[in-house]
Automatic annotation (TrEMBL):
Matching SUPFAM superfamilies: Periplasmic binding protein-like II (SSF53850), Winged helix' DNA-binding domain (SSF46785)
Gene Ontology terms for molecular function: DNA binding; DNA-binding transcription factor activity
Organism per entry: Pseudoalteromonas ruthenica
Keywords associated with the record: DNA-binding, Transcription, Transcription regulation
Superkingdom as given in the UniProt entry: Bacteria
Residue span(s) of domain HTH lysR-type: 1-57
Cross-referenced PROSITE patterns: HTH_LYSR
Gene3D superfamilies given in the database record: 3.40.190.290, Winged helix-like DNA-binding domain superfamily/Winged helix DNA-binding domain
Listed InterPro entries: LysR-type_TF_proteobact-type (IPR058163), LysR_HTH_N (IPR000847), LysR_subst-bd (IPR005119), WH-like_DNA-bd_sf (IPR036388), WH_DNA-bd_sf (IPR036390)
Family recorded in the similarity comment: Belongs to the LysR transcriptional regulatory family.
Stretches that traverse the bilayer: none
Record carries keyword Membrane: no
Name of the protein described by the UniProt record: HTH lysR-type domain-containing protein
Pfam entry (one): LysR_substrate
């Protein structure tokens, strides 16, 4: 209804439907239809119309003076918001997983804030799923399936999940790699309290297996699982993005090249019905490019 009121106010100010249509960049037929719809809703005639001119009726005068300040305030606010959304200067609030941000995304955050200092990044990190509505965040980075229809989402990438251990640990086991689940059961295993079983796929046969590990140590944080694995205390199942630096530095190695667990998909989310600001669009684009470049899906 506000759009109809806005059209009515501009018709009165411009003195005709054609001039109002030109000002609002609307087809004249649309302007006429909206005026008629408002008159039907209010159950009164607001304007006396001729071929080239419109004049307010007595009731139209009353409604015009009641609405004109409201329309002016709305358009002023709309203009300010459009300017803010179109500008790179301003605040951008993002929710993101703590471990993912401290590890794999750390160089991305440093590069983004250094390259775009005019974007006031407010990054809230947590390994728990934060409420985007209550936190009033512009967007969130999430890992794993996202089923909430209240949010728009875009897939950024996917990370495979590897069985890993330190080279020193495997030397002590007198083994180069693990080929069977029976071998895996003989190893000291480190895991998280979040996963009681491992869904493993044997790549050559494509067969899936549910493996229930008996953990020597368990943590509610994957970083500590990684720390103990790097220290040579056991084997672990970890997503590549958690251990990508350790793999490159040979602190960890993939010990079961023929086995993989379920991949972890990375998403960016934002509230449905909200247009992303230029700042948020930039961050989303840069994230997509960074993940595509730095997160190979499988290189053993």
């Amino acid at each position: 209804m506000l759009d109809d009121i806005r059209v009515f106010v501009h018709i009165a100010q411009q003195g005709g439907l054609g001039a109002a249509a030109q000002l609002l960049s609307l087809p004249p037929a649309t302007v006429t239809r909206r005026l008629q719809r408002l008159e039907q809703h209010l159950n009164c005639k607001l304007l006396n119309r001729s071929a080239r001119h419109c004049q307010l009726t007595q009731q139209g005068e009353v409604y015009y003076h009641a609405y004109v300040d409201l329309v002016a305030q709305f358009e002023h606010t709309e203009h300010r918001l459009n300017e803010a959304n179109a500008s790179l200067t301003g605040q951008l609030k993002v929710l993101a997983p703590m471990n993912f941000s401290h590890g794999f995304l750390k160089p991305f955050w440093l590069h983004f804030t250094r390259t775009y200092p005019q974007v006031a990044l407010q990054l809230e990190l947590s390994n728990d799923k934060q409420d985007m509505v209550n936190t009033q965040a512009d967007m969130a980075i999430r890992i794993g399936p996202q089923h909430d229809s209240a949010f728009m989402q875009q897939r950024l990438g996917e990370s495979d999940t590897l069985l890993v251990a330190s080279p020193e640990f495997m030397q002590r086991q007198n083994s180069e790699e693990v080929n069977t689940l029976e071998q895996l059961r003989t190893l000291p295993l480190i895991g998280t309290t979040l996963r009681k079983s491992w869904q493993l796929t044997h790549l050559p046969s494509k067969r899936r297996h549910k493996f229930v590990p008996r953990f020597m140590h368990q943590f509610n944080d994957t970083s500590f699982v990684k720390y103990l694995a790097c220290d040579g205390q056991g084997a672990a199942l970890l997503p590549r993005f958690e251990i990508i630096n350790e793999l490159q530095r040979n602190k960890l190695k993939c010990i079961a090249p023929n086995w993989r667990s379920e991949p972890r998909t990375i998403y960016v989310l934002w509230p449905s019905g909200r247009l992303l600001s230029r700042r948020a669009q930039l961050l989303k684009q840069q994230l997509n490019e960074f993940i595509a470049t730095h997160l190979p899906s499988d290189n053993g």
